[in-house]
Amino acid sequence: MTQSQLPWDIPSSWSPALEAARAGASLFLLGAVDSGKSTLAAVLASAAAEAGRVAAVVDADLGQSSLGPPTCVGMARVPRPVASLDELQAEAIDFVGCSSPVGHLLAAASGVHALARSARDLGAETLIVDTTGLIAAGVGRALKSAKIRLLDPDFLVALQADDEVEHLLSPFAHRHRPRLLRLRPSRRVKPRTRDQRAARRQHKFAAYFASGRPVEVPWDAVPIENSAWTSGEPAPGHLRAYAEERLACEVLHAEVRADGLLLIISGRPDPAALRALGPSFGGSARAIQAETLANLLVGLLGGRGETLALAVLESVDFRSRRLRLFTPLDDIARATGLRLGSLRVARDGAELGWIEPGELA
Fold first, then answer.
1. Per-residue b or e along 111-136, where b marks 16 or more CB atoms closer than 10 Å to that residue's CB
2. Fold of domain 3-191
3. What percent of the chain has pLDDT over 70?
4. Which of 55, 58, 295, 341 could make a disulfide contact with 45, Cβ separation 3.0–4.6 Å?
5. Which superfamily does CATH assign the domain made up of 212-361 to?
Protein backbone atom coordinates (compact mmCIF):
# COMPACT_ATOMS: atom_id res chain seq x y z
CA MET A 1 0.00 0.00 0.00
CA THR A 2 1.41 3.37 -0.98
CA GLN A 3 1.01 6.54 1.02
CA SER A 4 -1.53 7.91 -1.45
CA GLN A 5 -3.76 4.88 -0.84
CA LEU A 6 -3.84 5.32 2.95
CA PRO A 7 -6.97 6.80 4.64
CA TRP A 8 -5.56 10.19 5.57
CA ASP A 9 -6.72 13.75 5.23
CA ILE A 10 -3.44 15.61 4.82
CA PRO A 11 -3.67 19.41 5.11
CA SER A 12 -1.51 21.42 2.71
CA SER A 13 0.38 22.89 5.69
CA TRP A 14 1.96 19.46 6.24
CA SER A 15 3.98 19.62 3.00
CA PRO A 16 7.22 21.05 4.51
CA ALA A 17 7.22 18.37 7.21
CA LEU A 18 6.64 15.65 4.62
CA GLU A 19 9.56 16.90 2.55
CA ALA A 20 11.78 16.97 5.65
CA ALA A 21 10.82 13.37 6.48
CA ARG A 22 11.57 12.24 2.94
CA ALA A 23 14.96 13.99 3.12
CA GLY A 24 16.02 12.05 6.24
CA ALA A 25 15.47 14.68 8.94
CA SER A 26 14.73 14.28 12.64
CA LEU A 27 11.37 15.78 13.61
CA PHE A 28 10.09 16.45 17.13
CA LEU A 29 6.28 16.71 17.29
CA LEU A 30 4.48 19.09 19.63
CA GLY A 31 0.75 19.41 20.20
CA ALA A 32 -2.02 19.31 22.75
CA VAL A 33 -4.04 16.23 23.69
CA ASP A 34 -6.10 14.93 20.73
CA SER A 35 -4.32 17.14 18.21
CA GLY A 36 -3.44 14.16 15.99
CA LYS A 37 0.29 13.80 16.72
CA SER A 38 0.27 10.01 16.36
CA THR A 39 -1.49 10.27 13.00
CA LEU A 40 1.07 12.86 11.90
CA ALA A 41 3.89 10.58 13.06
CA ALA A 42 2.48 7.73 10.94
CA VAL A 43 2.09 10.04 7.94
CA LEU A 44 5.66 11.35 8.17
CA ALA A 45 7.22 7.94 8.77
CA SER A 46 5.25 6.46 5.89
CA ALA A 47 6.39 9.24 3.57
CA ALA A 48 9.99 8.59 4.56
CA ALA A 49 9.64 4.84 4.05
CA GLU A 50 8.05 5.33 0.64
CA ALA A 51 10.98 7.60 -0.28
CA GLY A 52 13.41 4.79 0.55
CA ARG A 53 14.53 6.12 3.93
CA VAL A 54 15.06 3.96 6.99
CA ALA A 55 12.41 5.55 9.21
CA ALA A 56 11.78 5.11 12.93
CA VAL A 57 9.27 6.52 15.40
CA VAL A 58 9.89 7.08 19.10
CA ASP A 59 6.51 7.15 20.87
CA ALA A 60 6.76 9.10 24.13
CA ASP A 61 3.02 9.30 24.88
CA LEU A 62 3.11 7.33 28.13
CA GLY A 63 -0.64 7.17 28.65
CA GLN A 64 -1.88 6.52 25.10
CA SER A 65 1.13 4.80 23.59
CA SER A 66 0.87 3.06 20.24
CA LEU A 67 4.30 1.41 20.43
CA GLY A 68 4.46 -0.86 23.45
CA PRO A 69 2.42 -0.88 26.67
CA PRO A 70 1.38 2.25 28.61
CA THR A 71 3.92 3.76 31.05
CA CYS A 72 6.71 3.22 28.51
CA VAL A 73 8.47 5.05 25.74
CA GLY A 74 8.41 2.83 22.66
CA MET A 75 10.39 2.66 19.42
CA ALA A 76 9.83 0.94 16.08
CA ARG A 77 11.16 1.22 12.58
CA VAL A 78 8.62 1.82 9.80
CA PRO A 79 9.60 -0.29 6.78
CA ARG A 80 6.47 0.49 4.73
CA PRO A 81 3.58 2.97 4.74
CA VAL A 82 1.18 2.29 7.62
CA ALA A 83 -2.29 3.66 8.36
CA SER A 84 -1.58 3.83 12.10
CA LEU A 85 1.33 3.37 14.49
CA ASP A 86 -0.78 0.62 16.11
CA GLU A 87 0.15 -1.59 13.13
CA LEU A 88 3.76 -1.66 14.30
CA GLN A 89 5.41 -3.87 16.90
CA ALA A 90 7.67 -2.05 19.35
CA GLU A 91 11.29 -3.04 18.86
CA ALA A 92 12.36 -1.51 22.17
CA ILE A 93 10.66 0.01 25.20
CA ASP A 94 11.90 2.06 28.12
CA PHE A 95 9.87 1.80 31.33
CA VAL A 96 9.09 5.19 32.90
CA GLY A 97 6.59 3.74 35.34
CA CYS A 98 3.58 6.04 35.06
CA SER A 99 1.03 6.98 32.41
CA SER A 100 1.79 10.66 32.99
CA PRO A 101 5.26 12.24 32.96
CA VAL A 102 4.34 14.57 35.84
CA GLY A 103 6.59 13.62 38.74
CA HIS A 104 8.75 11.53 36.38
CA LEU A 105 10.32 14.16 34.13
CA LEU A 106 13.89 12.84 34.34
CA ALA A 107 12.83 9.28 33.53
CA ALA A 108 10.60 10.44 30.66
CA ALA A 109 13.32 12.59 29.09
CA SER A 110 16.08 10.01 29.50
CA GLY A 111 13.82 7.28 28.09
CA VAL A 112 13.20 9.25 24.90
CA HIS A 113 16.93 9.92 24.55
CA ALA A 114 17.79 6.24 25.05
CA LEU A 115 15.34 5.02 22.41
CA ALA A 116 16.29 7.72 19.91
CA ARG A 117 19.86 6.49 20.26
CA SER A 118 18.67 2.90 19.76
CA ALA A 119 16.86 3.92 16.59
CA ARG A 120 20.00 5.56 15.24
CA ASP A 121 22.01 2.46 16.13
CA LEU A 122 19.55 0.45 14.02
CA GLY A 123 20.23 2.69 11.04
CA ALA A 124 17.33 5.14 11.22
CA GLU A 125 17.78 8.06 8.84
CA THR A 126 14.42 9.73 9.41
CA LEU A 127 13.54 9.92 13.10
CA ILE A 128 10.14 11.10 14.31
CA VAL A 129 9.51 11.68 18.02
CA ASP A 130 5.83 11.67 19.04
CA THR A 131 5.33 13.36 22.42
CA THR A 132 2.64 13.61 25.09
CA GLY A 133 -0.07 16.27 25.03
CA LEU A 134 1.42 17.86 28.15
CA ILE A 135 2.08 21.38 26.88
CA ALA A 136 0.93 23.47 29.85
CA ALA A 137 3.35 26.15 31.02
CA GLY A 138 5.83 25.10 33.69
CA VAL A 139 6.03 21.33 33.77
CA GLY A 140 5.22 20.96 30.06
CA ARG A 141 7.86 23.50 29.10
CA ALA A 142 10.47 21.88 31.35
CA LEU A 143 9.86 18.42 29.91
CA LYS A 144 9.76 19.46 26.27
CA SER A 145 12.84 21.70 26.66
CA ALA A 146 14.83 18.85 28.21
CA LYS A 147 13.86 16.43 25.43
CA ILE A 148 14.67 18.94 22.71
CA ARG A 149 18.07 19.66 24.21
CA LEU A 150 18.87 15.95 24.54
CA LEU A 151 17.72 15.03 21.03
CA ASP A 152 18.84 18.11 19.08
CA PRO A 153 16.23 17.55 16.31
CA ASP A 154 16.37 19.17 12.90
CA PHE A 155 12.76 20.38 13.15
CA LEU A 156 10.18 21.22 15.81
CA VAL A 157 6.79 20.45 14.31
CA ALA A 158 3.94 22.24 16.09
CA LEU A 159 0.50 20.79 15.43
CA GLN A 160 -1.93 23.45 16.65
CA ALA A 161 -5.40 24.77 15.92
CA ASP A 162 -4.60 28.28 17.22
CA ASP A 163 -1.43 29.26 19.06
CA GLU A 164 -1.46 26.79 21.96
CA VAL A 165 2.09 25.58 21.31
CA GLU A 166 3.67 28.98 20.64
CA HIS A 167 5.03 29.30 24.19
CA LEU A 168 7.12 26.16 23.54
CA LEU A 169 8.40 27.48 20.23
CA SER A 170 9.30 31.01 21.34
CA PRO A 171 12.76 30.15 22.80
CA PHE A 172 13.79 28.88 19.35
CA ALA A 173 12.47 31.80 17.31
CA HIS A 174 15.91 33.23 16.46
CA ARG A 175 17.96 30.04 16.45
CA HIS A 176 19.34 28.37 13.37
CA ARG A 177 18.49 24.96 14.83
CA PRO A 178 15.98 23.44 15.20
CA ARG A 179 13.83 24.88 12.44
CA LEU A 180 10.18 25.54 13.27
CA LEU A 181 7.24 24.16 11.33
CA ARG A 182 3.63 25.05 12.17
CA LEU A 183 0.95 22.63 10.97
CA ARG A 184 -2.83 22.58 11.14
CA PRO A 185 -4.56 19.50 12.60
CA SER A 186 -6.27 17.05 10.31
CA ARG A 187 -10.05 17.24 10.12
CA ARG A 188 -10.20 13.51 10.93
CA VAL A 189 -8.85 13.86 14.46
CA LYS A 190 -11.20 12.11 16.89
CA PRO A 191 -10.98 13.26 20.53
CA ARG A 192 -11.08 10.59 23.25
CA THR A 193 -12.92 10.95 26.55
CA ARG A 194 -11.22 10.22 29.88
CA ASP A 195 -13.11 6.91 30.06
CA GLN A 196 -12.02 5.96 26.54
CA ARG A 197 -8.42 6.70 27.44
CA ALA A 198 -8.63 4.54 30.56
CA ALA A 199 -10.27 1.73 28.59
CA ARG A 200 -7.53 1.90 25.96
CA ARG A 201 -4.83 1.64 28.64
CA GLN A 202 -6.52 -1.40 30.18
CA HIS A 203 -6.84 -3.05 26.76
CA LYS A 204 -3.16 -2.42 26.00
CA PHE A 205 -2.06 -3.78 29.39
CA ALA A 206 -4.31 -6.84 29.03
CA ALA A 207 -2.91 -7.59 25.58
CA TYR A 208 0.65 -7.17 26.84
CA PHE A 209 0.20 -9.53 29.81
CA ALA A 210 -1.91 -12.08 27.91
CA SER A 211 1.17 -14.27 27.45
CA GLY A 212 2.41 -13.73 31.00
CA ARG A 213 3.28 -16.38 33.55
CA PRO A 214 4.01 -16.33 37.30
CA VAL A 215 7.67 -16.54 38.31
CA GLU A 216 9.67 -16.14 41.51
CA VAL A 217 13.06 -14.49 41.77
CA PRO A 218 15.36 -13.67 44.73
CA TRP A 219 15.43 -9.91 45.10
CA ASP A 220 19.21 -10.03 45.39
CA ALA A 221 19.25 -11.17 41.74
CA VAL A 222 17.41 -8.06 40.53
CA PRO A 223 18.71 -5.02 42.47
CA ILE A 224 16.23 -2.18 42.45
CA GLU A 225 17.26 0.85 40.44
CA ASN A 226 15.05 3.66 41.70
CA SER A 227 14.46 2.92 45.37
CA ALA A 228 16.58 2.62 48.49
CA TRP A 229 15.06 -0.85 49.00
CA THR A 230 17.76 -3.57 48.61
CA SER A 231 20.59 -0.99 48.67
CA GLY A 232 21.53 -1.44 52.36
CA GLU A 233 22.55 -4.19 54.75
CA PRO A 234 19.81 -6.32 56.36
CA ALA A 235 19.20 -5.18 59.93
CA PRO A 236 19.64 -7.81 62.67
CA GLY A 237 16.49 -9.22 64.23
CA HIS A 238 16.88 -7.35 67.50
CA LEU A 239 17.06 -4.01 65.67
CA ARG A 240 13.92 -4.84 63.74
CA ALA A 241 12.19 -5.74 67.01
CA TYR A 242 13.35 -2.44 68.52
CA ALA A 243 11.88 -0.57 65.54
CA GLU A 244 8.59 -2.46 65.88
CA GLU A 245 8.37 -1.51 69.56
CA ARG A 246 9.03 2.16 68.86
CA LEU A 247 6.65 2.39 65.89
CA ALA A 248 3.89 0.10 67.23
CA CYS A 249 3.48 -1.64 63.87
CA GLU A 250 4.85 -4.75 62.18
CA VAL A 251 8.26 -4.35 60.52
CA LEU A 252 8.50 -6.86 57.67
CA HIS A 253 11.95 -5.82 56.50
CA ALA A 254 14.64 -3.45 57.71
CA GLU A 255 18.00 -2.49 56.29
CA VAL A 256 20.70 -0.15 57.49
CA ARG A 257 22.21 2.34 55.08
CA ALA A 258 24.85 5.04 55.37
CA ASP A 259 22.09 7.65 55.73
CA GLY A 260 19.97 5.76 58.25
CA LEU A 261 17.29 3.08 58.29
CA LEU A 262 14.85 1.84 55.65
CA LEU A 263 11.79 -0.10 56.78
CA ILE A 264 9.02 -1.96 55.02
CA ILE A 265 6.07 -2.04 57.37
CA SER A 266 2.51 -3.23 57.76
CA GLY A 267 0.36 -0.69 59.52
CA ARG A 268 0.55 3.05 60.13
CA PRO A 269 3.43 4.25 62.31
CA ASP A 270 3.34 7.39 64.37
CA PRO A 271 5.19 9.98 62.22
CA ALA A 272 6.90 11.48 65.29
CA ALA A 273 8.14 8.05 66.38
CA LEU A 274 9.49 7.40 62.86
CA ARG A 275 11.39 10.70 62.88
CA ALA A 276 12.77 9.99 66.35
CA LEU A 277 13.97 6.54 65.28
CA GLY A 278 16.36 7.83 62.62
CA PRO A 279 19.13 9.32 64.83
CA SER A 280 19.54 5.95 66.56
CA PHE A 281 20.82 4.65 63.21
CA GLY A 282 22.98 7.59 62.23
CA GLY A 283 20.54 9.39 59.96
CA SER A 284 16.86 9.32 59.06
CA ALA A 285 14.32 6.52 59.17
CA ARG A 286 12.13 6.00 56.12
CA ALA A 287 9.24 3.58 55.77
CA ILE A 288 7.52 1.94 52.80
CA GLN A 289 4.00 0.61 53.29
CA ALA A 290 3.99 -3.06 52.25
CA GLU A 291 0.56 -2.77 50.66
CA THR A 292 1.87 -0.27 48.12
CA LEU A 293 4.08 -3.01 46.66
CA ALA A 294 1.19 -5.39 45.92
CA ASN A 295 0.44 -5.50 42.16
CA LEU A 296 2.99 -2.78 41.49
CA LEU A 297 3.98 -2.42 37.85
CA VAL A 298 7.75 -2.83 37.45
CA GLY A 299 10.29 -2.95 34.67
CA LEU A 300 12.73 -5.84 34.28
CA LEU A 301 16.14 -4.59 33.16
CA GLY A 302 18.91 -6.18 31.17
CA GLY A 303 22.67 -5.96 31.48
CA ARG A 304 22.88 -2.47 29.94
CA GLY A 305 19.93 -1.12 31.90
CA GLU A 306 17.57 -1.60 28.96
CA THR A 307 13.96 -2.59 29.60
CA LEU A 308 13.49 -6.26 28.74
CA ALA A 309 9.84 -6.47 29.78
CA LEU A 310 7.26 -5.29 32.28
CA ALA A 311 6.03 -7.33 35.21
CA VAL A 312 3.41 -7.12 37.91
CA LEU A 313 4.96 -7.47 41.37
CA GLU A 314 2.14 -9.53 42.82
CA SER A 315 3.64 -10.15 46.26
CA VAL A 316 6.85 -10.17 48.29
CA ASP A 317 8.02 -12.94 50.62
CA PHE A 318 10.10 -10.98 53.10
CA ARG A 319 11.23 -14.05 55.00
CA SER A 320 12.81 -15.72 51.95
CA ARG A 321 13.57 -12.39 50.21
CA ARG A 322 11.79 -13.44 47.05
CA LEU A 323 9.60 -11.54 44.61
CA ARG A 324 6.56 -13.10 42.99
CA LEU A 325 6.12 -11.62 39.53
CA PHE A 326 3.78 -12.03 36.59
CA THR A 327 5.52 -11.28 33.31
CA PRO A 328 5.63 -12.24 29.63
CA LEU A 329 9.45 -12.35 29.74
CA ASP A 330 10.36 -15.84 28.54
CA ASP A 331 13.58 -16.20 30.53
CA ILE A 332 13.60 -14.46 33.92
CA ALA A 333 17.32 -15.23 34.26
CA ARG A 334 17.96 -12.51 31.67
CA ALA A 335 16.78 -9.86 34.13
CA THR A 336 19.62 -8.29 36.10
CA GLY A 337 17.73 -5.38 37.63
CA LEU A 338 14.31 -4.03 38.42
CA ARG A 339 12.72 -0.55 38.22
CA LEU A 340 9.70 0.23 40.38
CA GLY A 341 6.77 2.02 38.77
CA SER A 342 4.09 4.25 40.26
CA LEU A 343 1.02 2.36 39.07
CA ARG A 344 -0.65 -0.74 40.49
CA VAL A 345 -2.35 -3.01 37.95
CA ALA A 346 -4.05 -6.41 37.79
CA ARG A 347 -3.27 -9.16 35.31
CA ASP A 348 -6.25 -8.09 33.21
CA GLY A 349 -4.85 -4.56 32.93
CA ALA A 350 -7.23 -2.92 35.40
CA GLU A 351 -5.59 0.00 37.21
CA LEU A 352 -5.72 -0.50 40.97
CA GLY A 353 -4.15 2.70 42.26
CA TRP A 354 -1.33 5.21 42.03
CA ILE A 355 1.81 5.69 44.12
CA GLU A 356 3.00 9.21 44.77
CA PRO A 357 6.58 10.01 43.64
CA GLY A 358 8.97 9.41 46.52
CA GLU A 359 6.59 7.10 48.40
CA LEU A 360 8.79 4.10 47.62
CA ALA A 361 11.87 5.83 49.10
1. bbbbbbebbeeeebbbbbbbbbbbbe
2. Rossmann fold (3.40.50)
3. 97
4. 55
5. Pre-mRNA cleavage complex subunit Clp1, C-terminal domain (2.40.30.330)
